[in-house]
From TrEMBL:
Presence of the UniProt keyword Protease in the record: no
Organism, scientific name: Flectobacillus rivi
Transmembrane segments: none
Domain VOC intervals: 42-186
One Pfam assignment: Glyoxalase
SUPFAM superfamilies found in the cross-reference section: Glyoxalase/Bleomycin resistance protein/Dihydroxybiphenyl dioxygenase (SSF54593), NTF2-like (SSF54427)
Protein name in the entry: VOC family protein
Alphabetized PANTHER family for the sequence: BLR8189 PROTEIN, METHYLMALONYL-COA EPIMERASE
Length: 334
């Protein structure tokens, strides 16, 4: 075995071990989906021109509750820059403001002094027309809030009934300067996810597990143990109303349960699975064998069965906890 081949084998082993550790830690986010040519790993910001920077910032902060962070300018632009960027030569200096917009991409606002460009907003079917979509867990409440702030909402939320976007609700609204934006919601996921696609669209509702600079941001061992005990109570509870109350306390609204044979997203799909288990085995109950916790990761070894045969089936659940609730649940049945 030559030295080069040995190095390749060793690199492959190290890579495999690293990916295994990242998966167990809940930190593996489809690294191989990154574009290999220019190293793109995601969207940093979305830029938008506004007629009045002060009023635009006020809208994003006062209405949408975003946070302005950085500002640059006014910066004068030379004629060569304007020519290369298809700008009118008479347009003046630019001021740029970067807005932190929740967990998604940042928003970069541009205001040009003495702007000589087209002052008309593009129509919905114009080439180059764009919009920014903001995710909300409750689109009905979101629309009511926007209307209470005097924002023009373009119609009523539309729920996609079938296809890849089944379960998604959306509606457009206008900013005070006429730009079209969108509210979108799919707390129980979208239809295409049920077919186990190789790639899942990124979504701000699935907050990535971030490295923490302080353990004070992580759940305590006691808090994690309490959540897992309540998780088992959910699976043993036969009263649907009581079970839903527990789910709201323990599970994130968009919780994802991954089994070897299927993926269940949200309360409704998990409820359907729990109901089917209880109907097939009405006298079965889940019991804890062993529980291990590590920061926001927990591992539960369990058994389920009747009083006379308590260990009819055994297995292990792996939990990822975010914002005080169970976000992901990976099920392994022995």
């Amino acid at each position: 075995m030559n030295t080069t081949f040995k190095q390749k084998v060793n690199n492959l082993i190290r890579t495999s071990l690293t990916l295994g550790i990242l998966f167990v830690s809940g930190l593996y986010h489809n690294a191989f989906s990154q574009q290999q040519n220019v190293g793109i790993i995601g969207i940093d910001h979305v830029g938008i021109n506004v007629p009045n920077l002060e009023k635009a910032v006020a809208f994003f902060t006062d209405v949408l509750k975003f946070t302005p962070v950085t500002q640059l300018g006014p910066v004068s632009l030379d004629d060569n820059w304007k020519k290369n960027n298809y700008m009118q030569l008479g347009t003046g200096a630019v001021t740029i403001k970067m807005i932190l917009a929740g967990t998604g991409a940042n928003i970069e606002l541009f205001e040009y002094q003495n702007n000589q460009g087209n002052q008309q907003q593009p129509g919905g079917d114009d080439i180059g027309a764009t919009h920014i979509a903001f995710y909300t867990n409750d689109i009905t409440a979101g629309v009511a809030y926007l209307k209470s702030k005097g924002v023009k909402v373009l119609g009523d939320p539309f729920l996609m009934p079938s296809g890849d976007t089944e379960g998604e609700s959306w509606v457009y609204f206008e900013t005070p300067w006429g730009s079209k934006m969108e509210l979108v919601s799919y707390p129980n996921g979208k239809g295409y996810e049920k077919h186990h696609p190789k790639a899942i669209l990124w979504s701000p509702k699935n907050n990535e597990i971030k490295s923490r600079s302080s353990d004070s941001n992580l759940p305590s061992a006691h808090e994690t143990q309490t959540l897992i005990k309540q998780h088992l109570a959910i699976w043993n509870e036969k009263n649907l109303s009581k079970r839903n109350v527990l789910m709201n306390q323990v599970y994130a609204p968009n919780i994802e349960m991954v089994d070897r044979h299927f993926v269940a997203t949200g309360y409704n799909e998990i409820n359907e699975f729990v109901n089917s288990l209880q109907q097939k085995n009405p006298d079965y109950r889940f019991r804890t064998i062993k529980l291990e916790t590590h920061h926001n990761i927990a591992r539960l070894f369990w058994q389920v069965g009747s009083t006379t045969r308590p260990n009819a089936v055994s297995g292990m659940d792996l939990f990822v906890i975010q914002n005080g609730k169970i976000q992901q649940l990976y099920v392994f049945v022995n």
